């Protein structure tokens, strides 16, 4: 019987802590283990420290994960808990995403101050968001809207909105639910017209490849439906661009042994886009995502990516 507690690494934001606690609670329940068997270890990442510049500018993917992954690789941590949406498509050698907790709602939520819905905002209104995808999708509906960079923890963004810095902001419904803040939401966006980021709403657990003790423990909390859907979405992202500089949206839905995926790429001004829908057997989830990404890549041509990079 193992007696040394498992060390679970997480960032320190309220959302990250809520996710780490959810992971620990599910592990305790699945294995009838006491709380003392899990130690939550809080680390600060580069993405947490730099809050005044767009993520794509600081260096894109990996900003929220590098410190955790170093400690995971060195054996200082047994697992790291992340928003799957923040994970690079390529992980450091020796690490893998070994479990996905049951997914929360995948949709984006609007928190409107001067109007509840995007289409009702005043002409020339300002929306705060640092996400290229949200920026592009907003401009597709409302080219007159100004999107300004809006970063920081969910609480910080809500405070800036309250102070009147912007007319509205967009946040993942999943994060607001996990923080118990759904009361601020004024509208929820349809994923078919406003596709979420790949892996949005999913919590993943990263561990060392070949760590049998970790694998045995994590298998009991893995949700196969979330695993397959997110694997498909991440493969789509990987086939297109891992750099975080291209607005990409898409989501997969599993039904029985089938999976259906819809995705798009769109220019930041919202004027040009290519979309794809594909379905197949759940067994081939990742291959379907890859094929969808390659299909879009061929149709868009390299010029589509060069135009603004
Ligand atoms: N990029 C930051 C980030 N990473 C995960 C979430 C929300 C939770 C999730 O999507 O699972 C957020 C904030 C947001 O987009 O509102």
From TrEMBL:
It is an enzyme of class 2 (transferase). InterPro entries: HemC, Porphobilin_deaminase_cofac_BS, Porphobilin_deaminase_N, Porphobilinogen_deaminase_C, Porphobilinogen_deaminase_C_sf. This is Porphobilinogen deaminase. The modification S-(dipyrrolylmethanemethyl)cysteine is found at residue 244. It catalyses: 4 porphobilinogen + H2O = hydroxymethylbilane + 4 NH4(+). Its cofactor is dipyrromethane. Residues 230-296 form the Porphobilinogen deaminase C-terminal domain.
